């Protein structure tokens, strides 16, 4: 075993922390409050070439692994940018993976370099209100019409749809009931999000308000076959390989958020004096923070193991899911304790921990709830019978 | 980076594991638990050379380091084996490295070593209360892990030159060892009293040796718990697949499934922390205190939680004396406090936060 | 022992539930989102005579006890109004207690009937940024000037100051360092909140946004001696008796909030179907909700005991503090689980549980944090040495 | 409303408590724990008339109801007394009310009664598996609380007329009772086998009697835990005031103080639930199932948590066989599962939510 990070990884961590550190807490308070996309951060990362960290060099990227991508997003989040910062670029970092692996050369040439340079914003159009977590149950349908497809349906929780030029859209081209296997008959597109055919409605939500979450009502959206990713009917399989990386990246973001919250809590504990004595001297305040540090560190180890396994082509479902569970839990707990450490001021937005707390709550639900992680582990690792 | 055991380490694990299963089947283990005499097991461990794994060859060891010791500890915990003597030797041996003769007898022979410190606190020379008058020791230390199984006592004592470590033969005049019964009968503690006992001063930096011993103890106890969690998970999953209610195995109930999966999460988390902390302490990483503290403070309470979950999954059958689960349960409970509970270790973690000292 | 509620108490519970039930979840969603005071609810309760539930009949009230007051606020909160609803009237319900007991007849005649009929809004001006929980450390100073006092200082977390006509203001008339005992030298006023002398700035906060929380900067506020409550220098003692009722009422509100969240969670569990099966059938969803019900019920018992003790003139510090701890914990947990039950939709504001969650978080901090409750119990009940 | 014990109830508590302290001092209790024979204690309990408190006078009782029984259970739990026979009788007696002779011998004499159902599940006639052929019973039931201490067995059995309750003298032919050892040695369970054992049918509604017994059991076990929490809190607070570190009592450390206060919160919460549930079940409140379930599902896990906290506050001393804490710890652990764990009781609570049945 050798747990030391490579020199590159250490460099990435430091450089990202420095760049993200230029956007201070007030910046994020304002963006979140005004529901404004963090263009300045996004542009700075685009300019620095960071959006292409996992994109192959042939398309202008760096061709690095999930380990490096997770370090990047962790540090963005840990800078205090939290989920507002991470979500602004999350999709650019690894979301194009199915396109990279299965898309046509023409499609890749047309899109990837623009994603790397930050010009092209893409949103991820998979989840639907009635499908729950079973992606095969989506009903958005793409009907073939000559060289085109015509799409109708509804999507929900589509991050960044407000800002996105294109959407990576999963559809059915064979209905669920007509498909031989339920995983067949799904088709993936990377296409323009034509506002005249797609009604985009923001969802009012508890936090992460700098990046919108949206409901999409798709009405006769016409898509050229050139925008299809890979073969018709194989879309589900193209997305499969991305599930574990997605969980690892979210885990990294949760971890960063927890560290940001902990840093704030420690700072407040040292600065806030009651009767001439910093409150950080109280055991009742110190020990929970110490425990949170230990839990974050422990969760990080699981994440590092998972990304290492993935980058080395080894199975990592167990580790990726466990990492998501541990990081989301430890991140939320750190945020919760940071609020508690601040006493009444923790409830005000001005100390920022309430923002972290609201964001951290999301990570126990998305992209997969903690309970679904347990279901996965029970069925796939422990071999317990399937249950609902 | 490489987040996997080497082939050699994998082989060590599997060999030791099957040896344990052969050398000490469950029935024998239970009998031993009732009788309370681990001599036969300890002799077998020595006889097969397991006590010298994880130590440099020039001490009489077979090579390897704390990671290998952690792998052994994990398997011992997994098996519920009476490993107190082994554990004490693994913690105390480095302090004896300067006395080649003694250390090789500890590693190769059946003469266990033991650091004479209270077993319920983080190892720390100040807590003992033994005084050195020249090389004659006097004082008492309570709840010393495995003192009743050891030949070679490593004793922190304060004399004219300050804190030093001394070697005392347990058979020397003026040494008295009184065993105490614990809930966990697979490991024992004893109170040790010195009345002018003859000692020889060890040639090492006492403070450094004790700090190192504290971290080794943290890692090895955490590893022991890791093995226990693994085993309890196995027992619980097996039981939940067999046991039926309303005509289906209870493992298909979501509440049972979530309970088992939570244990798996704990096991996986424990595994990554334990190996990491072992490597960190072994390599003298600058953050090794934080890593070892994290292992101890996170893994051993998780072991207790896992034991609770396993008991709940088993229902009352888990409480009966004839079922093995209670062995692991009690072991997990003891590990939680052995060589310092979470509160003590969390204090050390707090000092890694840039917070002011607690008052 | 006899645990049965009186007929009056049962009647109050039903009537309040009915009245509060007229304001639906959408009403609260909008009030919270727009940061608007819930005038309609407040007026309805004023019109119904509820604001005077504990006020003596001589001043137009009903002269009932804390038990009845706690049932009222619990049911307001449980209706889905949550802390937005409860806080809108909380101060009118019991906040005038020091005035009732210690105020001059003239002051009472001048204010209490107007509070009962809802016309007069009062805010509670005690907490200060530098005093923490030790009220004796406040520094807002009232200097005697002829028949008047002139006040300068700063207050924080003053609920409803935006809407209030008057403030129940705690000041020092002898400085901390000059007072013989630290509890001496504090003076209480019930006086107009003169906007020309008091700058009121809302605090941006995580939740309960229909009722403002404010910082007050008081600059030469002139107060007539007629507005003084009781004697000069005794203000601290006048407030003391209100501490336990305050904790009980907050406990009642937390309890109601937990019940509102649980009701929503159960409804969603029954309505939301995945693959033709309500998700409420899942054990993984049911058991946590069942446990939350048990915890809320258990916490309620402690609250009922505490209010009964108070109303019967018995010591209740132990029970009041324990009730606050248990209700705040159980209420938060219920809200947290309600969010989790809703999956992704729990994060959206449209299912209301995220609002409850944000509000429930406040109750683990205010009016006294859970940790301070433990400190209180450790010192005052277990007799452990004082610590910080 | 009146949220206080009556003067009479207060007196009952304090009298019983001081009697227990006189009748069974700590040393005797520990000896009994090692030897495992509770006969002397059981006889004393009967001799002083405590076994008839909480039952109507026309059964041979001294009056009072489930609230009084809960008060006794609390004190027995507080003392760690070997109360299994008392508990079994308190649960089983109402089913025997139709047989005045038997019930009076149970309450006044030293012939304990016992409901023959598995001790690890919520009481429920279906789980036993005893068949009635006329009035001859056959079948086996495992882990029956205190079956080895009882004279009068109340047996749910299914015959031609469906589920009925039967009375069986434990000395009858065809009755076999085999004791099992538990971690908690203050109470015992036994497996009971019937091979054509002669029985007499009890004149009561079996379903109703069993449902009532389930709730009584829940309340009394919760009360036992309440007493245990109280005692462990007392031990922990006392220890934390005595024990010094860095020259001050550890009770002044905030972490220790918060731990003790959390136990107090648990004790207070437990107290209000237990009495309330006892009154509710006694008075046949329409929500009595919810109340008893809440008591069992909330209080008994809180007891385990409190035990963990108390152990943590004590450090390793709590683990030694000579310290009393482990008695209470094990008792709390057993109570968690006795007559149904939280999961089973939470299922019953879930049915009070208007949620669909779990699948």
TrEMBL record, chains A, C:
Describe the location of the Acyl-CoA dehydrogenase/oxidase N-terminal domain by residue ranges: 6-119
Q: What is its EC number?
A: 1.-.-.-
Identify this protein by name: Acyl-CoA dehydrogenase family protein
Q: Of which family is this protein a member? A: Belongs to the acyl-CoA dehydrogenase family.
The cofactor named in the record is:
FAD
Domain of life, source organism: Bacteria
GO MF annotations in UniProt: oxidoreductase activity
UniProt cross-references to SUPFAM superfamilies, sorted A to Z: Acyl-CoA dehydrogenase C-terminal domain-like, Acyl-CoA dehydrogenase NM domain-like
Domain Acyl-CoA dehydrogenase/oxidase C-terminal residue range list? 233-372
Q: Can you give the residue ranges of the Acyl-CoA oxidase/dehydrogenase middle domain?
A: 123-220
Write out the entry's keywords from A to Z: FAD, Flavoprotein, Oxidoreductase
Give the enzyme's main class according to its UniProt record, as a single word: oxidoreductase
From TrEMBL, chains B, D:
Write down the InterPro entries for this protein, in alphabetical order: Acyl-CoA_Oxase/DH_mid-dom_sf, AcylCo_DH-like_C, AcylCo_DH/oxidase_C, AcylCoA_DH/ox_N, AcylCoA_DH/ox_N_sf, AcylCoA_DH/oxidase_NM_dom_sf
Q: Which GO terms describe its molecular function?
A: oxidoreductase activity
Q: What class of enzyme is it?
A: oxidoreductase
Q: Which residues form the Acyl-CoA dehydrogenase/oxidase N-terminal domain?
A: 6-98
Q: Which cofactor does it need?
A: FAD
- The EC code for this enzyme is 1.-.-.-
The chain positions of domain Acyl-CoA dehydrogenase/oxidase C-terminal read 219-345
Keywords from UniProt, A to Z, are: FAD, Flavoprotein, Oxidoreductase
Would you identify the family this protein belongs to, as annotated?
Answer: Belongs to the acyl-CoA dehydrogenase family.
Specify the protein name: Acyl-CoA dehydrogenase family protein
Q: What is the lineage of its organism?
A: Bacteria, Bacillati, Actinomycetota, Actinomycetes, Pseudonocardiales
């Amino acid at each position: 075993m050798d747990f030391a990070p490579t020199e590159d990884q250490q460099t990435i961590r430091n450089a990202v922390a420095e760049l993200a550190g230029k956007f201070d807490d007030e910046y994020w308070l304002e963006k979140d409050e005004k529901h404004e996309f963090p263009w300045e951060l996004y542009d700075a990362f685009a300019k620095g070439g960071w959006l292409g960290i996992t994109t192959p060099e042939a398309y202008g990227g760096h061709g690095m692994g999930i380990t490096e991508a997770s370090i990047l997003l962790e540090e963005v989040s840990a800078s205090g940018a939290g989920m507002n910062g991470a979500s602004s670029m999350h999709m650019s970092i690894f979301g194009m993976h199915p396109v990279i692996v299965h898309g046509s050369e023409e499609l890749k040439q047309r899109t990837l370099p623009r994603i790397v340079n930050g010009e092209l914003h893409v949103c991820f159009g998979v989840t639907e209100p009635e499908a729950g977590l079973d992606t095969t149950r989506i009903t958005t349908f793409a009907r073939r019409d000559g060289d085109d497809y015509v799409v109708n349906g509804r999507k929900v929780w589509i991050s960044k749809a407000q800002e996105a030029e294109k959407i990576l859209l999963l559809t059915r081209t064979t209905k669920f009931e007509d498909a031989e296997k339920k995983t067949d008959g799904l088709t993936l597109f990377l296409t323009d999000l034509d506002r005249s055919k797609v009604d985009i409605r923001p969802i009012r939500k508890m936090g992460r308000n700098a990046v919108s979450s949206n409901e999409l009502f798709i009405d006769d959206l016409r898509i050229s076959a050139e925008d299809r990713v890979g073969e018709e009917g194989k879309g589900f399989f193209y997305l499969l390989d991305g599930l574990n990386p997605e969980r690892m990246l979210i885990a990294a973001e949760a971890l960063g958020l927890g560290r940001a919250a902990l840093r704030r809590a420690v700072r407040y504990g040292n600065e806030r004096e009651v009767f001439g004595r910093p409150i950080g001297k109280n055991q009742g305040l110190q020990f929970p923070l110490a425990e949170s540090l230990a839990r974050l560190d422990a969760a990080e180890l699981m994440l590092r193991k998972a990304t290492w396994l993935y980058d080395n082509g080894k199975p990592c479902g167990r580790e990726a899911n466990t990492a998501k569970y541990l990081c989301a839990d430890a991140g939320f707990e750190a945020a919760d304790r940071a609020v508690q450490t601040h006493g009444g001021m923790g409830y005000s937005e001005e100390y920022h921990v309430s923002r972290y707390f609201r964001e951290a709550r999301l990570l126990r639900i998305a992209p997969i709830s903690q309970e679904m992680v347990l279901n996965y582990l029970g069925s796939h690792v422990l071999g317990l019978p399937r249950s609902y | 980076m490489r987040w996997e055991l080497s082939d050699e380490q994998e082989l060590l694990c599997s060999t030791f594991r099957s040896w344990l299963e052969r050398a000490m089947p469950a029935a024998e283990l239970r009998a031993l638990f009732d009788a309370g005499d681990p001599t036969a097991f300890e002799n077998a461990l020595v006889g097969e050379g397991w006590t010298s794994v994880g130590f440099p060859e020039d001490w009489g060891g077979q090579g390897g380091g704390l990671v290998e010791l952690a792998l052994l500890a994990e398997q011992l915990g997994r098996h519920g084996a009476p490993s107190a003597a082994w554990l004490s030797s693994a913690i105390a041996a480095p302090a004896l490295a300067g006395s080649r003769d003694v250390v090789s007898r500890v590693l190769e022979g059946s003469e266990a070593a033991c650091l004479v410190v209270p077993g319920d606190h983080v190892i720390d020379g100040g807590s003992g209360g033994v005084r050195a008058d020249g090389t004659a020791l006097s004082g008492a230390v309570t709840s010393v892990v495995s003192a009743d199984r050891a030949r070679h006592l490593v004793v922190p004592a304060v004399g004219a030159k300050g804190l030093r470590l001394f070697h005392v033969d347990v058979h020397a005049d003026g040494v008295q060892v009184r065993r105490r019964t614990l809930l966990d009968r697979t490991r024992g503690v004893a109170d040790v009293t010195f009345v002018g006992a003859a000692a020889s001063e060890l040639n090492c930096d006492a403070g450094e040796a004790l700090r190192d011993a504290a971290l080794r103890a943290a890692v090895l106890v955490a590893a022991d718990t890791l093995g226990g969690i693994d085993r309890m998970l196995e027992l619980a999953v097996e039981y939940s697949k067999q046991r039926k209610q309303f005509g289906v195995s209870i493992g298909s109930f979501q509440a049972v499934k979530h309970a088992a999966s939570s244990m798996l999460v704990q096991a996986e988390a424990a595994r990554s922390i334990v190996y990491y902390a072992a490597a960190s302490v072994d390599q003298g990483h600058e953050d090794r205190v934080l890593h070892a503290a994290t292992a101890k403070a996170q893994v051993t309470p998780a072991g207790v939680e896992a034991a609770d979950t396993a008991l709940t999954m088993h229902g009352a059958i888990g409480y009966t004396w004839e079922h093995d689960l209670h062995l692991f349960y009690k072991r997990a409970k003891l590990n939680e406090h052995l060589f310092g509970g979470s509160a003590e270790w969390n204090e050390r973690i707090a000092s890694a936060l840039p917070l002011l000292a607690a008052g």
